[in-house]
Amino acid sequence: MAEQHSSKSIMWAVIIVAIALIAIVYPLTVKKSTSAADAAGGNDEADIRIQPVAKFELAKAAAPAAGGAPKDGPTVFNSVCGACHNTGAAGAPKAGDKAAWAPRLAQGKDALYKSAIAGKGAMPPKGGAADLSDGEIKAAVDHLLGLAK
Asked: pLDDT digit string (tens) for 27-52?
């Protein structure tokens, strides 16, 4: 009987030790429960962390200002055309280079106006300044041709 008594006490000791271990380990391993509002907040933080580095948006060009005084040829040339035609960038004929402008002058002013307004080669329409009127572009062409004569 002594053996039966000792095995019972060993069994109860093991059960008590197991309960004590469970009571200590269980709270450390179970995540704390969060409310629905806290769970939604976690998603916002994740969205912030995975934002793209940059954004690119296309927008329409601004409409030409109504009632503004038209710009003269030298002003348009210096602000728009000169960036390429003063340096020869992208194959643009340099301002004042008579040899480069001679074949273009032979085409006539109307062909040059058309090229400047519609664009040609690397030059975008109106030199990239879509807000300029056709008259302002023609004045800039006349100024550029005056430099080449």
From this structure: 888 876 665 555 555 567 778 888 88
DSSP three-state, residue 56 = coil
Residue for token pair 């273009």: 104
In this predicted structure, what is the pLDDT of residue 42? 58
54 within domain boundaries: no
Q: What is the pTM of this model?
A: 0.53
Question: Residue 118 belongs to what domain range?
Answer: 73-148
- Contact indicator for 80, 129 with CB cutoff of 8 Å: yes
Burial category of 9 from C-beta neighbours within 10 Å (exposed 0-12, middle 13-18, buried 19 and up):
exposed
